[in-house]
Amino acid sequence: MQLYNTLTRRVEPFAPADGTTVRMYTCGPTVYNPAHLGNFRTFLFEDLLRRVLRLNGWKVEQVMNLTDVDDKIIARSVQQGKTISEVTVPVTEIFHRDREFLRIEKAEVYPKATEHIPEMIAIVEKLMSRGLAYQAEDASVYFAIARFPGYGKLSRLDTRQIRAGARVAADDYNKEDVRDFALWKAAKPEDEQTGAAWDSPWGRGRPGWHLECSAMAKRYLGDTLDIHAGGVDLIFPHHEDEIAQSEGANEKPFARMWCHGEFLLTDGAKMAKRVGNVAGVEELRTHGISAAAVRHFMFSVHYRKQLNLAEESLEASSNAVRRVGDFAERLAAASGGTENMSSIAAELVESATDAFNDDLNAPEALAALFEFIRMVNAELDAGGTDQKGLDDARQAFALVNGVLDIVPGEPELDAALSSWVEERLTARREARARRDFAVADAIRGELDGRGIAIEDTPQGTRWKKVR
Ligand SMILES: [Zn+2]
């Protein structure tokens, strides 16, 4: 398998250091607002990466952090008179709902920043003892970039450029160098008020954003990761600062491979006709755009190229996955195939696997899949009774779709079913409120008829599909 490594600016062979398990850290969402589609392009690229790693027979141990304390979260909490967790818990639920809708496989761990403060403090203590960090007059602790020789190796930004680009804020006069970044921010009244302050050897405060990733990566994956992934917008300063902290504290390389997904461009996209202005997954879902179509759209362009969000492209992807769905049904229902189908299947497995392993070339794998569909459809049209040909075709299709996951179906049905169930439950609640128990019971029967079991709890009625 080959992957582009941002650190070396080259496509390189990849295998996990221990030969069996890929230890991968992926920067997760800041949970103050539902993640936008640009974030989900990154998460889908990471889902593709995860599935291709497994296709190679490796296990994957993926950690995705949830940033549940930062300036934006605190500002929103103050505005709404809430604590930070009252803001972040519901948004985290939305993130997982959107993630599941898009069929993004669950990472092994989703650690929260606020639950790893001691690990963060330990890194700052280490950096202090090694002379790489200092407490300034404003009581915050900063990383001293000038004392870390490798600074800038990932982004390859000239340090003079970094200096020129750094915004000189009022508190920057406390720092030794304007480029220095905060490891630990001294608590302000709004931090205390919203539950965003903790005790530390340097007084009350909260961690800087970069610090949380260094701490949680070390906690769950050790000092050296196989892969660190994220969006290109994180290369500088976030990932550069993670390297400075982790390598400064651990004295070991932080990640063997750095993978970055490009932007999804939504500016100027004319989405008005059918979709309106789409910002998040929820809008796509309510406009009836399937997860399969979104995945096809995102994978139709290589992850290191920019992608434009346009209504026509989503339409084209919806049509494309409908063909995939029709084919999947036809293949499942077929009672026999042809001998030719075995070689057509072998050809798909080879070209799609090669494409996936060539720096996640999903567009090429998609092209191979559609060629396979065209050829197998022609064989099925001819009719046949060959069982091996049919089995080979089914296996090849399952293997490639196991990575792309672009057959529309269950989740979309579920979305329609959910809204129907919610509507019925509202009607039942109203019937019970007016003590019309006959109607309420009839609705329960109606739900039961479609395999929905309900349970009345003090928090409301819960339901699940039981068959
Ligand atoms: Zn990070």
CATH superfamily of the largest domain: HUPs
- Runs in which pLDDT lies below 50 for 5 or more consecutive residues are 270-275
Strand content: 5-15%
Cα(first) to Cα(last) distance is 41 Å
CATH class of the largest domain: Alpha Beta
What is the count of β-strands?
Answer: 14
Mind sketching the topology for me?
Layout: E1 2-5, E2 10-13, E3 21-26, H1 37-55, E4 59-64, H2 71-80, H3 84-101, H4 117-129, E5 133-135, E6 141-143, H5 159-165, E7 181-186, H6 189-193, E8 205-207, H7 209-221, E9 225-231, H8 235-250, E10 255-261, E11 264-265, H9 281-286, H10 291-299, E12 307-308, H11 311-333, H12 340-357, H13 362-382, H14 387-404, H15 410-433, H16 437-449, E13 452-457, E14 460-465
Parallel strand pairs: 3-4, 3-9, 9-10, 11-12
Antiparallel strand pairs: 1-2, 5-6, 6-7, 7-8, 13-14
The chain binds zinc ion.
Zinc ion binds at residues 27, 213, 238, 242.
